[in-house]
Amino acid sequence: KMAAAAGAAAGLWSEVNRCGQNGDFARALKSVNKILQINKDDVTALQCKVVCLIQNGNFKEALGVINTHTKVLTSDVIAFEKAYCEYRLNRIESALKTIQSASQQTDKLKELYGQVLYRLERYDDCLAAYRDLIRNSQDEYEEERKTNLSAVVAAQSTWEKVVPEDLGLREATYELCYNSACALIGQGKLNEAMKKLQKAEELCRQSLSEDSDVTEEDIEAELAIIHGQMAYIMQLQGRTEDALQLYNQIIKLKPTDVGLLAVIANNIITINKDQNVFDSKKKVKLTNAEGVEHKLSKKQLQAIEFNKALLAMYTNQADQCRKLSASLQSQSPEHLLPVLIQAAQLCREKQHAKAVGLLQDFADQHPANAAEIKLTMAQLKIAQGSVTKACMILRSIEELQHKPGMVSALVTMYSHEEDIDSAIEVFTQAIQWYQQYQASQTTGANPKSPVHLSLIREAANFKLKHGRKKEAISDLEELWKQNPKDVHTLAQLISAYSLVDPEKAKVLSKHLPSSDTLSLKVDVDALENSHGATYVRKKAAKLTGDNQQKEQGQGEVKKKKKKKKGKLPKNYDPKVTPDPERWLPMRERSYYRGRKKGKKKDQVGKGTQGSATTGSSELDASRTASSPPTSPRPGSGAAVSATSNVIPPRHQKPAGAPATKKKQQQKKKKGSKGGW
């Protein structure tokens, strides 16, 4: 029996070896299971079974075999297979522990270690791991390692805003070009990134077209991720229509990459904003597809969740919006956006005071983010009309008090409230801050910074505008001291002193340059020959000539211009007296009868026998005496008999016209009130 079993096992092993070489792992698994029936603890057979299951994609079952036979399949024997199964099952932390617990770090484990670190977004460690692999490996997978290395650099540039170093990688493949473009996008070099993507598209087409089995649909599917990145660049450049068109083209291809679809759907939602919300609600379903969470980075997933909360707010789903934003806040307590979304939702519900309180609580708990929160609070106060309170909030942001933008905003708001003293105080505090900063940074008398001088000038102009000349003098003197050749500042200083200390103004006026020293460097000939000067000169000459003619020809008779004979109508008859009312508008002539809508048709024989025919409006029971009168019916007034020799009213007043327009209208109104 033992000899027969050994012979059968040998035959089965031969079958396993043959199937493995042919890539038929399903048949190999059947043979391995038969071997395990003979010897259930055969280490080699168990290893082969795990490999067959992995090759068939049954990672969960393979991991189950490893965990069931831990005594036989120790970590030294099966470490790589176990870590790989955990990696493919998205148990990334477990895979990392398995790799780190292995007694010997083989090349396969190092390769997997780099992939695990990338998924965990530990980019610095991942970069070091791939560099070590490239340096110490020489095989046919060198191009793939370089591609992975460039992907790590692109991720650092995109998510960590790290300026990537030049790795000296030759961009011979479309994957390397694509990763290089992603790194450029992270640096904000959008035009360069677009050129790289175009090169990547060209290389991809060349590479895939060499394979006769690849169809055009396959090429477009492979290009989808490149086109998606192109659309993203267009969106960043403000070309939203072009980006939207390209995004929708990619969705129509129905790519199998759920991560790509989720990103494109999210970007379309950001373009739609609060418009086209029904399309956004359809697109948001693509972000909920199974496996999306394993395809995207944490920041991408977070951005999608933020946009879901905003979409809920735009679609008036208040409870859903609060639920999503509260969940986001619990996941990232220090992040601003969840709190801002909650505040925006409260404002939509007209609960401004509650929104301000929510923001104030967050600012107290997270002082590092207080500046942005306080800016939002100030905006809410302005929306409520509390400008003074908004100014108080803005002035409490110490790190922004001296910024020119903040100073400008505060001065504008205080001026709107006619609080000039507070506006001047804002200028004074900002100028003092720059003085203290300059004193701490340098020693001795150094020239003031351009921003400092600009603030002093703006303060002086503001004070002069509001009649504070005494206060403006010190600022102007400081400016003139910094630049004694500044004539404009000197003129302002003299103007200010002229109302306060005229003697001082006279003394300062001596520093003004004389008119002889002022060389305007004007080309007089060019100025006189310019279009405007020529027009003025010609006009002046014309006026002078007219005046001379008036003076010289006072006794002469002024020549009269010949009037052109007016054109007469074609049917003009000189024997007929023209209509005296021909110059009046038709409506104001005594014989005007109103506009005719059409001749009354002969209605004889068009009703029941013996009945009188009437207009349809007179048969309408709703048109009773209580109904408001309608416009007169054509033909209800006295008709004028037509003749073959018609003379236009302009030339001849028709015979038999009614006396006046007013009487005729009254007559028509009476006729329109007939009820049934």
TrEMBL record:
Q: Which GO terms describe its cellular component?
A: endoplasmic reticulum; signal recognition particle, endoplasmic reticulum targeting
Gene Ontology BP terms: SRP-dependent cotranslational protein targeting to membrane
* GO terms assigned for molecular function: 7S RNA binding; ribosome binding
TPR repeat spans: 224-257
Kindly state which keywords UniProt assigns to this record, in alphabetical order: Coiled coil, Cytoplasm, Endoplasmic reticulum, Repeat, Ribonucleoprotein, Signal recognition particle, TPR repeat
- Region Disordered: start-end pairs: 538-676
Domain of life from the UniProt record: Eukaryota
The residues the entry assigns to the signal sequence are none
| Keyword Nucleus attributed | no
Q: Which PROSITE patterns match?
A: TPR (PS50005)
Where in the sequence does UniProt note compositional bias of the Low complexity kind?
Answer: 622-639
Tell me where in or outside the cell this protein is found.
Answer: Cytoplasm; Endoplasmic reticulum
* Bias kind Basic residues: ranges: 558-568, 660-676
Please classify the protein's predominant subcellular localization into one broad category.
cytoplasm
Mind telling me which InterPro entries this protein's record contains? Signal_recog_part_SRP72_RNA-bd, SRP72, SRP72_TPR-like, TPR-like_helical_dom_sf, TPR_rpt
What sequence ranges are listed for the domain Signal recognition particle SRP72 subunit RNA-binding? 538-594
Amino acid composition bias (Basic and acidic residues), ranges on this chain: 570-591
> Which ranges form a coiled coil?
92-147
Stated family: Belongs to the SRP72 family.
List the PANTHER family: SIGNAL RECOGNITION PARTICLE 72, SIGNAL RECOGNITION PARTICLE SUBUNIT SRP72
**Identification of the protein by name:** Signal recognition particle subunit SRP72
